[in-house]
Amino acid sequence: MNSLTFRLLEVFQEVVDSGSVTAASTSLSLSQPTVSLQLKKLTSVVGLPLLEQLNGKTRMTEAGQIVYRCAQEMMASQTRMRSQIKSLQGMESGSLRIAAVTTAKYVIPPLLGAFCKQHPNIDVNFHVGNREQILERLKNNRDDLYIFSHPPLEEATQADPFMDNDLVVIAPSDYTGPDNCTLHDLAEQKFLLREAGSGTRKSVDEFCREHHFNFIDPMIIESNEAIRLSVASGLGLSILSEHTLAQTAPNSVKKLHVEGFPLCNQWHVVTRKNRPLSLAAQSFKSSVLQEK
Ligand code: PGA
Description:
The protein is an alpha/beta fold. It has helices at 6-18, 21-28, 32-46, 62-89, 108-118, 131-139, 199-210, 224-232, 279-289; strands at 51-54, 57-60, 95-101, 123-129, 145-148, 157-172, 191-193, 219-220, 237-241, 253-255, 263-272. The strands form two sheets. Strands 3, 4, 5, 6, 7, 8, 9, 10 and 11 form a nine-stranded mixed β-sheet that branches. Strands 1-2 form a two-stranded antiparallel sheet. Helix 5 links the parallel strand 3 and strand 4 (123-129). Helix 1 packs across helix 2 and helix 2 (21-28) packs across helix 3. The site of 2-phosphoglycolic acid has 14 residues, from helix 7.
């Protein structure tokens, strides 16, 4: 006879969050048969199917949604308990979970590196994804701190700005097309853009909407580095955060002077108001905000 355990709920939540048994088995470091078996056990404990197939996609049944909500509450309560206990034990052995949008990986690691040197016993978990993926983690209360340049406008969150994030138009170093111009003057150029769901792309799309500009057949690439290298090798132009250029070989790309650019954004550290922060998280947040 199976009984309900924390582990079964944790596995179910991961299958739903990651979208498949395969992805969940990777993130939980379990084999696929183990994850499938855990799902089967949970289904037999609940006594109703938790997942169903619709148009080739897996989705939760009503019972699945109830179990998922319960799993979320248990995880949040476990995180709260852990962080309160760790706070009692003092900051030096605390834990810190950070989730940052892809482009912030140029900004956060140096700050995190310095922090970890000062507090070597803090257990750090650093997750990177595009804006949409990090918003999902925020919604599911997975981390202590989130780094966005377009923070969600939700009452339940607090967003504190700490650094500029300017988006610039870049071209190959031997580019001879229009410069000192408007984006419309670049309409004939091939653009390499980040994917929908990325914060960088959101900013670019907003600018284009305001200026009634459409890219002709842009190439979509889901990585700042790949875009930067593709621009350097002459594939086209792009609009990227200036941070992504910091490690570029000198003169491999050049910035164009385009009206309305740079697009000025700011990095924010975002927290959920109802999640008590561990001492470690409070301390890292303060060190990030000192960058102002
Ligand atoms: P991105 O986010 O890495 O998802 O593009 C950057 C941003 O929010 O500006």
